[in-house]
Amino acid sequence: MAKKEKPEAEEPSAPFWLVTFSDMVTLLMVFFILILSFSTIQLEKFRGAMSSMKGALGVMPENNSTFKIINPNYEDEDTVIKQEVWEKIEQIESMAKEMGLENMVEIEYTGTGVIVRMGDNLLFDSGKAFVKKQAYPILDAVAKAFNPESKEIYVEGHTDNVPIRSSRFPSNWELSAMRALNVVRYLNSVSKIDAAKLAAVGHGEHRPLVPNNTPANRAKNRRVELYFKMK
C-alpha cells in the first residue's frame, strides 16, 4: 500500500513581523483618533458644565448678559460653533455691557448661520422707522463680526398685534417693512456691507415669538432680526 504523502506547509503570505507591525499601526491610528476627538470641545457644553460646578460650589451665575446665546448645541460635526464665532459674540457682549444695555439683544446659532434679534426700543422710537443713533455702535459691531463669513444677510421687521393707522404706515406691515429697509440702508451705506448680500422683509404682526397677550410679550415681539446666512 502506497504511503500518503504529508502536505507541505504553506508559505506564509506575509512575514510574521509585518503582521505585528500592522497591528501596531492600527492601534496607533485608533489612539490618535481618540486624542483628536477629546480635543474637539463644544464650548457651550463646557460652559454648561462649569456653570453647574459653580452652582454646586455656591457661586451665583451671571444673569445680566445683554446677549442671550440660545440653541447652540448641535451634535453634527458641521454645526459645532467655531471658537472664532464665540469670541466675536463675547466681544459684542462686552461692548454692549459697557454701553449699559441689558436684555435688548439675543443671538441664536441655527446651524446654517447666526440670527441677531434686537428689540424695537433699541432701534426705533415708538411708531417710527428711523434708526436711532444709540443703535449705531451695536449694528456696526454685529456687522463687523458676522459679515465676513456671511453669504447672505436677511433683515426682518416684526411688530406686535396692536394696529397702527397713519398716513405713513397704514398697517403694521408697512411699519415693519420700513424698519427692516432702514436697517438694510444703514448696513449698506455706513457699515459698508455689499448690497448684493442684503435683503429686507416686513412680517408685521404675523410671526410672533410669543403670544401677544401681555405687555411684556408684545414688547418681545416688536423686534428686528438680522440673519447672517453662512452656509
UniProtKB/TrEMBL annotation:
Protein name per the record: Flagellar motor protein MotB
Transmembrane segments: 16-38
Membrane is among the record's keywords: yes
Protein location: Cell membrane
Main subcellular location: membrane
Family listed: Belongs to the MotB family.
UniProt keyword Phosphoprotein, yes or no: no
Bilayer disposition of the protein: Single-pass membrane protein
InterPro entries tied to this protein: Bact_OuterMem_StrucFunc, MotB-like_N_dom, OmpA-like, OmpA-like_sf
Any one of the GO CC terms: plasma membrane
OmpA-like domain location: 111-231
Keywords: Cell membrane, Cell projection, Cilium, Flagellum, Membrane, Transmembrane, Transmembrane helix
